[in-house]
Amino acid sequence: xxxxxxxxxxxxxxxxxxxxxxxxxxxxxxxxxxxxxxxxxxxxxxxxxxxxxxxxxxxxxxxxxxxxxxxxxxxxxxxxxxxxxxxxxxxxxxxxxxxxxxxxxxxxxxxxxxxxxxxxxxxxxxxxxxxxxxxxxxxxxxxxxxxxxxxxxxxxxxx
Length: 159
Ligand SMILES: CC(C)(COP(=O)(O)OP(=O)(O)OC[C@H]1O[C@@H](n2cnc3c(N)ncnc32)[C@H](O)[C@@H]1OP(=O)(O)O)[C@@H](O)C(=O)NCCC(=O)NCCS
Known about the structure:
By secondary structure, this protein is of the alpha+beta class. The chain folds into two domains: about 1-115, Aminopeptidase (3-Layer(aba) Sandwich), CATH 3.40.630.30; about 115-159, no CATH class. The protein is built from four helices and eight strands. The protein has helices at about 25-35, 40-50, 100-110, 125-135; strands at about 5-10, 15-20, 55-60, 70-80, 80-90, 115-125, 140-145, 155-159. It has an eight-stranded mixed sheet, with helices on both faces. A hairpin with a 5-residue loop joins strand 1 (about 5-10) and strand 2 (about 15-20). The two termini are about 20 Å apart. The model has no long low-confidence stretch (mean pLDDT about 95). The structure holds coenzyme A. Coenzyme A (COA) binds near residues 34, 89, 95 and 98.
């Protein structure tokens, strides 16, 4: 997925490709609908422009002319370690293997860069995300107490 390559999911009707600034409004729509404390638009734009250590991928619906963005995943990559910073699917399109496709694309992209491990934090109550990560053989390797601003703990998961 480095450069302009597009990942075509075997199961979900989406193409996954690098995010551009033109995608910013659509991505903000998805993250605003997905998180209680979402990234700000200015933070995301700054990260997209300046964070060379980060990879931003979006999923676009196939078979629709304008190809609306229905999901996003962002991860950082240092040496051989990928860290999932966020993954989200538009609530209207959940349960259609799009999160699955985004995570598979992240893993493929990380592997192509020489990655050997993927880590992340996830709310201990986030059944859907934990289910997604477990499906892809992530293990819980620890817990961070009070990790989130509202006091909820995070599981640290790794694959
Ligand atoms: C987590 C999230 C990205 C999953 O996206 P999705 O497109 O709905 O998930 P998929 O349809 O690709 O499901 C893939 C797998 O995830 C798991 N899963 C998805 N939804 C689930 C749910 N509600 N309960 C349990 N497991 C679930 C299942 O293992 C599923 O595989 P299966 O369909 O073969 O059973 C989506 O729920 C989301 O955007 N949540 C809000 C943002 C968020 O919490 N992000 C995670 C931050 S750490």
